[in-house]
Design brief:
The structure is a homodimer of 375-residue chains. Chain A is an alpha/beta fold and 375 residues long. In chain A, helix 3 runs parallel beside helix 4. In chain A, helix 8 links the parallel strand 10 and strand 11 (230-234). Chain A has twelve helices and 19 strands. Chain A has helices at 17-30, 66-74, 99-105, 125-132, 143-149, 151-158, 189-199, 209-215, 245-248, 265-273, 291-301, 312-320, and strands spanning 7-8, 14-15, 43-48, 51-57, 82-87, 110-115, 136-139, 163-171, 175-177, 204-208, 230-234, 255-259, 277-280, 305-308, 326-332, 334-335, 340-341, 354-364, 367-374. In chain A, the strands form four sheets. In chain A, strands 13-12-11-10-14-8-15-19-18 form a nine-stranded mixed beta sheet, with helices on both faces. In chain A, strands 4-3-5-6-7 form a five-stranded mixed beta sheet, sandwiched between helices. A two-stranded antiparallel ribbon of chain A has the order 1-2. The interface between A and B is large, with 52 and 52 residues. Strand 18 of chain A pairs antiparallel with strand 16 (334-335) of chain B.
Chain lengths: 375, 375
Amino acid sequence: MEEDQKSPGRSGFFMDKHQKWMHQALVLAEKGRGNTSPNPMVGAVLVNDNQIVGEGYHQKFGGPHAEVWAIEQAGGLAKGSTLYVSLEPCSHIGKTPPCAQKIIDAGIKEVYISMIDPNPLVNGSGVRMLQDAGINVTTGLLESEARQINRGFINSIEKKRPWITLKMAQTADGYIADITGKSQWISSSDARDFVMQQRTIHDAIMVGMGTVFKDDPGLLPVDRGGFIPYRVILDDMLKIPPRLKLVSDECRHRTVILTASDDKNAKIKQLTGTGVNVIHVPGDSFGWIDLQKTMEKLVEFGITSIYSEGGSQVAGSLIQHDLVDEIQLIIAPKVLGEGISTFSGFMKSLDSAIQLKWDDVQMLGQDLLIRGRLA
Amino acid sequence: MEEDQKSPGRSGFFMDKHQKWMHQALVLAEKGRGNTSPNPMVGAVLVNDNQIVGEGYHQKFGGPHAEVWAIEQAGGLAKGSTLYVSLEPCSHIGKTPPCAQKIIDAGIKEVYISMIDPNPLVNGSGVRMLQDAGINVTTGLLESEARQINRGFINSIEKKRPWITLKMAQTADGYIADITGKSQWISSSDARDFVMQQRTIHDAIMVGMGTVFKDDPGLLPVDRGGFIPYRVILDDMLKIPPRLKLVSDECRHRTVILTASDDKNAKIKQLTGTGVNVIHVPGDSFGWIDLQKTMEKLVEFGITSIYSEGGSQVAGSLIQHDLVDEIQLIIAPKVLGEGISTFSGFMKSLDSAIQLKWDDVQMLGQDLLIRGRLA
């Protein structure tokens, strides 16, 4: 029996060797961020005699899976080794052959898996295929970390919509702008740095036309050489002026307009002709797009996580329709007395209030960041 | 040289022996809470040969000072001892003879003082009197703790008004009630327990007529056998119906009405006849009372700290007029969409917003408590 070697993990807790190898698989998985959606980020590490003999990650949508890279890198050393993989190996023939079979063929003797693949085509059958071949399988290792990384992928399967983080920056008295509509800047530069970082871990940033008209935002990350999130615009009536940044800058191919408009094909043609993505969504009799359908369309497009930076209208629509997975409430130490409310479009009595749950709170410079979710 | 004996203090830090004795003096000072205003709470400990030989505290307004009790208790053991006192001993003849002289006469050889008395009649002259008599004096020991206990007394001298803590319980979107005015209960029972505890460490609770009409509150502590804070009502036009709890319950002698009304003497007579306190404050041409004047009158009455539990009107008036020392913002995990705003009566642009500073945040059951102050 060998001793478990303990070392401090990224959360400060001490990890045993299995956690350590799985942690490495999760670090590898992260490398695929921005390129794998709507498929998951997956990392794999092959260990033989306490040495890493192969590593891999799912690099891009439709490309080889993490396990394949690791097994190829290991070559003959894969035989008798232990695999650490952040998602259950697939058992079906999809865009690539089943990984479970490749693992069996390579002679791997033991497999550690973070989380079962929620995809109904897999969902446990990968584990069974490995076990039927006599491989020792352990699941659930660092599962919550794996679920966090792939929260968009999980949502797209379980809820048929992307993971949606709703960010709001408001004053102590609950206003996102003063009465003239001015909102730059309610929050501090530290809070804005946090927002910039959040943009890099979501497939897309979303705003409504209120924000587009008011601010003509660019919504681009500081580092334009890295991952550029999609910029999703809810533009029910297709009113966006073609000169605005989101549809005219050099990243306009990363802009996605959702609209109920179908009688203005000239404008759609004009926009798509310059590289902008326009998606038609059914509208109601007032011409407003159906939000649940919008979200399904975004998953089809390949967007599985959204950072909502819209104003009252978008925030109100999302929370009313139960389309929020995480709430980020930034509370600036300011008081306006009157202003633009955080949510618009609905009104609840105290007894029927929308219930949240606070998960965490931290200082962001002079502001507070409260994280929560719908209860 | 003797070793300092270190022991863990109430904040978890390790105290040396001087801090330990001064801590004991502060614990004694607290015993006077509710009975000394507008004078300070003061505690004193006399130590001789590492043993406490005398203790005392300022028990009630106009009564003997803390040092006097301690010296009397020590008797002959006061000679050569060390005094720990939470406020500079007085040097003037006020309601009692000067304590500094008593200390000199008792043959005390060394004096530790938490804070200098901000009262212009003392303000350093007590220290000088002791030093002139050859006594070794050290000031500033646990000063911030002493200032915290006597924040009302300090405010009453430095700002000519009570310490004012403004409490607001609001939803995540900044409403203190739903659109029908219903506010019971926005916050959880843990938050309400916190509020009950806060009521016991302020001389008075304050509300406006909006809250009185809407809720007919009692504003009494759970333990009615202990300290009952005053219940201050801002009733500009003296509209309070005599049947309401605050002016008819068994604690109505602890109710103070501030009003600009002077042409309804019959009602004032009726109220004061049942034991209610009514204070006239000058009003403006609309009949609204002057808030700064109101606060001066409250200090004269003997109230040096106020816990404001009023609604939008009172909160708006206080914050607009820079009459807030601590803000307690309780944020419930609820969303209403529309409702009654936290503040009313003013409207700021983002550039002229009232600036706060967040000091601390903690969970109160399912709610968040944010403490801050005006920047």
